[in-house]
Design brief:
The chain is an alpha+beta fold. The chain has helices spanning 49-61, 125-137, and strands spanning 8-17, 23-29, 35-37, 40-42, 69-74, 85-94, 106-113.
């Protein structure tokens, strides 16, 4: 029997705020690949997925929503230029856009209206946003 394959696992978090207009929280990556992205990062070996999502969100934005819901999993072999990465995506909806504080791997963190997202997002995050935002706002 062959040994199982090993892949990196990430936990990403899509946060949508309802006011002043529907907006999503994105971070500008400090490290390559550069660009705007969904907050998130790699799961530590001894960490539960939801705990990794909460930790990464807090480290990169300073936000701590009370509830996160697991929404989807992404694992296309070419989704991350650094190597095979499987991402578990969580989501939350906030009534108000809390002020983020960029930290850790984030050079910036800000809210973007759903009608004015950056034209280019890192990884497959444009696809993720298109698929999970309706689940959060629906």
């Amino acid at each position: 029997m062959p040994a199982p394959s090993r892949y990196a696992v990430a936990a990403d978090v899509v946060i949508v705020a309802e006011t002043p207009e529907p907006s999503v929280l994105l971070i500008r990556r400090r490290n390559p690949p550069l660009g705007w992205a969904i907050p998130g990062g790699f799961v530590d070996p001894d960490e539960d997925l939801i705990d990794a999502a909460r930790r990464e969100l807090f480290e990169e934005t300073g936000l701590e929503p009370s509830e996160l819901q697991q929404l989807a999993t992404y694992g296309h072999p070419d989704r991350d230029p650094r190597g095979r990465t499987i991402s578990v995506v969580y989501g939350a909806r906030l009534q108000h856009a809390e002020l983020p504080a960029a930290g850790d791997d984030a050079a910036d963190a800000r809210w973007f209206p759903l009608t004015a997202l950056p034209t280019t997002l890192a990884f497959d995050h444009a696809t993720i946003l298109a698929q999970v935002i309706p689940q959060i706002t629906g």
